[in-house]
Amino acid sequence: MNSIRLDKRDLILSKGSAVMTRRGYHGTGVLEIVQAAGIPKGSFYHYFASKEDFALQALAFIYRPRLARYAQAMSDPTLSPRARILAYYRDLLAHFARQDTPQYHCFIGSLSFEMSEMLPAIGAEVAAIQQASVDILRGCLEQAQAAGELPADEDCGNLATFISDAWQGVLARLKVGRNLQPLEAFVTRLERLLQA
């Protein structure tokens, strides 16, 4: 019974977050979420107290696995710390290059722009996810520094924040312009930035 309950909740989170990513928080009602999931409207309130609760749970549903994959990539023992970082972002560039028209729809980006000020709980969750990503990258940068791949006086926390913020900017440019130039420029600059 519990697995059925979790499966239905995951279905609602998966389908509903896809709708909310495209239409925004305000542009998505509970009706659109349940229609996307193919469930009765009453089922929504069995799993979620409100649309805000849904958005908060969707953030965790989407980004916990992504953070786990990022942490795994940033700790890959087969690569040096610098190589891990560069390989990760080169792989992302290759992913977007395989698309006919490069595009990116970001659930966390949409929610942060639209709702962080209006619903502080969503703003706090977005900030926590972004900080977790920065912390993972900072750890890898510190390993690179210890291995002599970065200068001894490099502020790894500041560098991790800068790279993360720059990447978010690249994704915003991709959403607007739908071309690879900002991603290519990011990877080129990152390669130069991560030199000892």
TrEMBL record:
It comes from Ectopseudomonas composti. Residues 6-66 form the HTH tetR-type domain. InterPro entries: Homeodomain-like_sf, HTH_TetR, Tet_transcr_reg_TetR-rel_C_sf, TetR_C. It comes from the Bacteria. SUPFAM superfamilies: Homeodomain-like (SSF46689), Tetracyclin repressor-like, C-terminal domain (SSF48498). Keywords: DNA-binding, Transcription, Transcription regulation. Residues 29-48 bind DNA. Gene3D superfamilies: Tetracycline Repressor, domain 2. This is TetR family transcriptional regulator.
